[in-house]
Write a structure and sequence with these properties.
Layout lengths: L2 H9 L6 H18 L5 H16 L6 H11 L8 H31 L7 E4 L4 H12 L5 E5 L7 H10 L4 E4 L4 H4 L5 E4 L3 E2 L5 E4 L2 H10 L4 E4 L7 H4 L29 E4 L6 E4 L2 E3 L4 H9 L1 H5 L4
Helix pairs in contact: 1-2, 1-3, 2-3, 2-4, 2-5, 3-4, 4-5, 5-6
The structure holds ribulose-1,5-diphosphate.
Length: about 300
């Protein structure tokens, strides 16, 4: 798939979920590099930078996309000629993609240890990291069942219930507004992440913060499943995460002309509602987000946000 097509697929949500978006962006830059048949290092670098901007602008909220292009292009400056630049981009894209896939598996193993035999799990939207945790717990022989929210307006919950049911896990779908009512039956809430801020706040599918609030009220732990590239160096510099608002036709059509609709598709859950974050480098407190950004993503990353 050409880079422009990948960006369009991300925008239209044919490619969706923060992890897959990130891997697809790395793959698109790799293909762009491999297909370059000019001889100018400057022209080649400009092409890659333009490709990076096109990808980053395709969806605004998930920092995984930004971290993926940073990781893929981080060694561009070390290239001596066109051939070495191709090799560098291709290698760094492959490393990112492979580490990303491994991270989802490791998170599954680490997060599953927090799920007990007999637990009733609540999940939201369609997160591959959260599903990795739930499926690993089931594969460990734990007798679990899952409530999955519908996740309006896109109904990603339908993907989640299909995946869980194919894996043989008992699953019940509920509408998003049933979350607080059902919470008394839930032992643990397990959700994914689009972005984790330096103050430990979670940006994830709209409705996640209501789950956090209801879980906190009912003393039900909420575990977030997030690869380290979901943590945002940009928030260390005070940047506020942009919450994507999508086309209102996703919510409803043919309403009276004076009725306004809004369609924010992500929200922010404060750290105080989050019990723990399962990452590939271990199970951490949301208040350790700063350390992940500095130690795992590196200070260099911060300076690359400038200019
Ligand atoms: C998907 C969503 C997911 C995170 C994490 O939103 O909010 O919880 O992206 O997913 P959308 P994963 O459907 O709008 O992309 O764990 O697969 O990266």
């Amino acid at each position: 798939m050409k880079l422009d097509e990948t960006a369009e697929s991300i925008r239209t949500m044919n490619i969706r979920g923060a992890g897959l978006i990130a891997r697809s962006a790395a793959e698109a830059l790799k293909e762009l590099a491999e297909e370059y048949n000019g001889e100018s290092l400057i022209e080649f670098t400009e092409l890659l930078n333009k490709g990076r901007d096109t990808l980053v602008n395709s969806r605004p909220t998930a920092v995984s996309l930004w971290n993926a292009v940073q990781a893929t292009l981080k060694n561009v400056k070390n290239a001596e000629d066109v051939t070495s630049l191709k090799e560098i981009v291709s290698r760094d894209a492959d490393i990112f993609i492979s580490n990303s896939k491994k991270a989802v598996e490791t998170i599954g193993r680490i997060g599953a240890n927090r799920i007990k035999d007999g637990d009733v799990v609540l999940t939201h939207c369609n997160s591959k990291a959260a599903l990795s945790v739930i499926k690993t717990a089931y594969e460990q022989g734990k007798n679990i069942s899952v409530y999955a929210t519908e996740s309006r307006p896109w109904k990603q919950g339908l993907l989640t219930v299909k995946d869980l049911s194919d894996a043989g896990i008992p699953v019940t779908m509920i509408v998003d507004s049933a979350v607080r009512w059902i919470m008394k039956e839930i032992d643990i809430a397990v959700v994914g992440a689009d972005t984790i801020c330096s103050n430990g706040a979670l940006i994830n599918k709209i409705g996640t913060s209501q789950i956090g609030l209801a879980a906190h009220e009912a003393r039900v732990p909420m575990m977030v499943c997030a690869e380290s590239y979901k943590f945002s160096p940009k928030t260390m510099e005070g940047e506020i995460v942009e919450i994507e608002e999508r086309d209102t036709s996703e919510v409803a059509e043919n309403l009276p002309p004076n009725v306004r609709i809004r369609n924010p598709v992500f929200d922010s859950t404060p750290a105080e509602y989050i019990d723990c974050i399962a990452t590939e480098i271990g199970l951490i407190s949301p208040y350790a987000a700063y350390e992940v950004i500095v130690n795992k993503l590196g200070h260099e990353c911060l300076f690359e946000t400038e200019g």
